[in-house]
Amino acid sequence: MAPALNRRQTLKSTLGWAGAAVLASRTERAFGFTSANERPRMAAIGTGSRWYQKATGVDSRYGSAPDMRKLGDYVAVCDADAYRVGLASDIAKEWTGESPRASSDYRSVIDDPEIDIVHISTPDHWHAKIAIEAMLAGKDVYCEKPMTLTIEEGQLMSKVCQQTGRICQIGTQQRSDKGFLTAIALIQAGRLGEVRKATCSIGGGPTSPEIPVTEPPKSLDWNLWQGPTPEVPFRYLAGDNGETQSWSRCHYEFRWWYEYSGGKLTDWGAHHCDIATWGLGKTQTGPVSVDPVMVKHPVPFREGNPVDPSRYNTATEFLIRAVFADGKEIELRHDQGNGILFEGSGGRIFVNRGRLTGTPVEDLESNPLPDGALEAVYKGRELTDHFRNFFVACQDRKDPISDVHSHHRALSTCHLAGIAARLGRKIEWDPETEQVIGDARAQSFIRRDRRNGFEIEIS
């Protein structure tokens, strides 16, 4: 895309024009990652613990950046917290030998024609806006899960990705894990018979004490951090809680506020419901009903909205059942550990990040899967880690293993579960039109208004 073309002009362009322009202007340099001068240039937008925990001041190797930097170079870092930008800048300089561009304004990254890949590790409510603008500006995207805050954002993500031809990998790394791939291969080989149900045990959500209103840290641009969401006071309470040693509306703890996330339903739900949807063969459709059989919240709700702004508000306990047109089911529940139980007419298997069990698994010793079975599940690609899969997809311009479209379908089930949980009633859903049937209030939760200045513009 011509450097003189500014962001406003880019976003006002039609999707078809944008897709043609960016595809025509890409250089071969972006598609190689073996030699130093061909490594893609990356920008990190959001430099919290999921990017790299060291950038939060914690001495830990947790995060995806150490794996991403093996295949590309971080030349820009961006975050609403200047303290984290400073740490991330130092880390990137250690890796590349050069200081990256450091900024709080992600638009400077979007406008830079020299950046090939945008790595999004912001809170959930920022994911879709940044990813859409990045794709429109001709960049490939690695976006941490969950991809979106609402179903409408997923629809927009899918549309923009398809029409621009960009590569977008979602950070649901279980899709590149051999245990989960084996589980899917067993299902597709008929080793469980007809699979009728998947139970996703994703853990319960936390509660908090009353969190007082206080001034945000001087390093944090609280207005920018809130972005598209309604403006509210900053809340913070120091204490022995999690990686931030606090309760707040902000870093890490944003997960437990419906304003910014979906609680466990979209946190671990994004991982396990994705695998469940894949196993049931429902990656191109959705449920027809979502029933909140049992849900507990830590604060009262009125018409689907929490009425106490001082405490975490996402569901703490739940059993939510999603039923598809053919009667197959996905259950999301807070108990029974962590993992996915697939039940079929000829057997059952349980899979999580450390275990794959069940009679069909035991039978592999005497009746192994045919050669190439896992590769077939892995879209015909050579088995590798999730990050290299993304870079290979950027090179050959074919869908990565965790593509936008299938993730949108799986995550829609999680979002519908959250809507049903908030309203306390069963929702009927049309997966073809992606509309709630006969419930205007529930339908209103499919999208959210965005604050002035933080709209998503695609045409």
UniProtKB/TrEMBL annotation:
Which positions fall inside the Gfo/Idh/MocA-like oxidoreductase N-terminal domain? 73-171
Q: Which InterPro entries match?
A: Gfo/Idh/MocA-like_OxRdtase_N, Gfo/Idh/MocA_oxidrdct_glycsds, Gfo/Idh/MocA_OxRdtase_bact_C, NAD(P)-bd_dom_sf
Protein's UniProt name: Gfo/Idh/MocA family oxidoreductase
Gene3D superfamilies on file: Dihydrodipicolinate Reductase, domain 2, NAD(P)-binding Rossmann-like Domain
Q: Which residues form the Gfo/Idh/MocA-like oxidoreductase bacterial type C-terminal domain?
A: 211-455
Q: Name one GO molecular function term.
A: nucleotide binding
The record's section on Pfam families has: GFO_IDH_MocA, GFO_IDH_MocA_C2
Q: Which organism is it from?
A: Roseiconus nitratireducens
